[in-house]
Amino acid sequence: MQTLGIDLAAEPKKTGLAWVDWSGPKARVSNLAIGASDEELLHSMADADKTGIDCPLGWPRQFVAFITKHQDDHVLVEEGVAADWRRKLSYRETDLHVKRTVPGIQGLSVSTDRIGVTTMRCAALLSRLAAEGLPVVRTGSGPVAEVYPAASLVRWGFSHKGYKGSKGHGRRAQLVDELQRAVPWLDLGVYAADCKRSDDALDAVLASMTARAAARGLTEPVPAAAQEAATVEGWIALPRTGTSIGDLVSE
Q1: Is this structure's pTM higher than 0.90?
Q2: Are 204 and 17 in contact (CB under 8 A)?
Q3: pLDDT digits over 35-45, tens only?
Q4: Which InterPro entries does the record associate with it (predicted)?
Q5: Mean pLDDT across the chain, nearest whole number?
């Protein structure tokens, strides 16, 4: 089995792409690159058994309705606490679910933060993928799943803090070493140095590993009450509580 992890950015130069080959009790990072064009991403997603994309797959339904109403007419502000009303426009149901269930994790708002620009690129990619005949299901049940590497780390028992950006180089190198000690079955090979140097590279590998979890049924199912929202807004694949990172490989 081959999984693909994509740490998507608005521009190709910051987009990480990681292939992981899974065979029995072993896994190997077979390719890792930073700087992936739309064409490279589309070809890669079409070839992978399962892809994990670190990017929202949609926008909050209430935000879309709010913008549509504003375009056509005047909007009405809900009565009550203004912050509660804005929160419904800012965060998807999956974002709120992650915040409730994964300690210390607060995702970005796709409707009010710069990640929205990346999501525009993602939406265009998924539309092209669907047009080419690959089913795109925003709940993650198809060949593509939305992932959140930091949340996956927490669910697998690692700290997600402090590994991002140039200031996080030391912690990032430490985290890669921790991963290699905890999962000796994962062969990073020559790409270990890339993961220590770039959080885009490391997140792409973590995204690929989370894709493996989703493919093996080791991620949380979408709650029944959130099915409708997840179909439109997207849903983050979270490793299930009670599973371990070791469950990703077959004995």
Answers
A1: yes
A2: yes
A3: 999 999 999 99
A4: DUF429
A5: 95
Instruction: Judge whether 53 and 144 are in contact, CB under 8 Å.
Output: yes
Q: Is 110 exposed, middle or buried (0-12, 13-18, 19+ CB in 10 A)?
A: buried
Whole-number Å distance between alpha carbons of 10 and 110: 13
Q: What is the pLDDT of residues 196-234, one digit of tens each?
A: 999 999 999 999 999 999 999 999 999 999 999 999 999
- Domains of the chain and any CATH numbers: 2-58+94-248 (3.30.420)
Residue 86 — very low, low, confident or very high, per pLDDT cuts 50/70/90?
Answer: confident
**Pairwise CA distance, residues 233 & 177, whole Å:** 35
Burial of 80 (0-12, 13-18, 19+ CB in 10 A): exposed
- Say whether 205 sits in a helix, a strand or coil: helix
CB-based burial of residue 108 (10 Å sphere; 0-12 exposed, 13-18 middle, 19+ buried)?
Answer: middle
Give the residues across from 125 on adjacent strands.
none
